[in-house]
Amino acid sequence: MKRITLINTCFFLAMVYATAQNVITVDNSIGSNANESDLQTAISNANPGDILYVHPSETNYGNIEIDKPITMIGFSHSSADKQTLITDLTLTSNASNVSVSGFRITDDLFITDGTPISNLILEDNYFSSSMVINNGGVDNLVLRGNIINTMGSSGASASSFTNALITNNIFLGNITVRLHESVTIKNNIFLTSEVFNSRDETGNVTVQNSIFIARTAGTANANNDG
User: Fold this and answer.
1) pTM, 2 dp
2) If you count Cβ atoms within 10 Å of the first and of the last residue's Cβ in the chain, which end, N or C, has fewer?
3) Cα of 107 vs its chain's centroid, Å
4) Long-range contacts of 42-47, Cβ-Cβ distance < 8 Å, separation of 24 or more
């Protein structure tokens, strides 16, 4: 009986090892000894569940598309001489269960496929331009600790994020919420920016424990409908 148990235990451990996450290092700097030099190639070669550590570099890693569940970790977006830069970040309909942290996205984030994705974590990134979340959108979104220019826009299919936690971010531009009933916005700083409800006929957006800073020569109304 003990022998059978030992065999079963060894088989179980072998299965766990076989399905363990791989760690892939990426560095496009000259002379690097990382596993990959091209980030898109590393994503294409990765298995679902793999972890990609992407080194800082003076060279932008370019336009990146994620089409599988992976974790992608950059070095920093704020250090002047050590940033991990990508241009556009596109998440396809197969990009559920993705986590991205530590990057500076110098252009846009796109989630525009008709099929919704789920379980997306975006943390400690700098989104220099727009976060475009349309059509299918994303369900179960955690947006935490980022610097964000603008997020969402008005329209029938725009700003399609549900069951979203948006917390501890700095917004440089406006955020537009469409399905506000399932969105929590708290502990953020809004610099010369506002929160817009694109469907105020369904009720009001609730914003908790946040700071709004604006300087204007006119009369600002922070209590617009919705």
Assistant:
1) 0.87
2) N
3) 14
4) 43/67, 43/68, 43/70, 43/72, 46/22, 46/70, 47/22
**Tokens 């690097």 sit on residue:** 32
Task: List beta partners, residue 91.
Answer: 66
pLDDT on residue 59? 93
pLDDT value at 212 more than 60: yes
Measure the CA–CA gap between 163 and 139, rounded to whole angstroms: 6
User: What 3-state class would DSSP assign to 141?
Assistant: strand
pLDDT tens digits along 53-110? 999 999 999 999 999 999 999 998 877 778 999 999 999 999 999 999 999 999 999 9
Contact 171, 190 (CB under 8 A): yes
* Distance from C-alpha of 152 to C-alpha of 176, rounded to nearest angstrom: 5
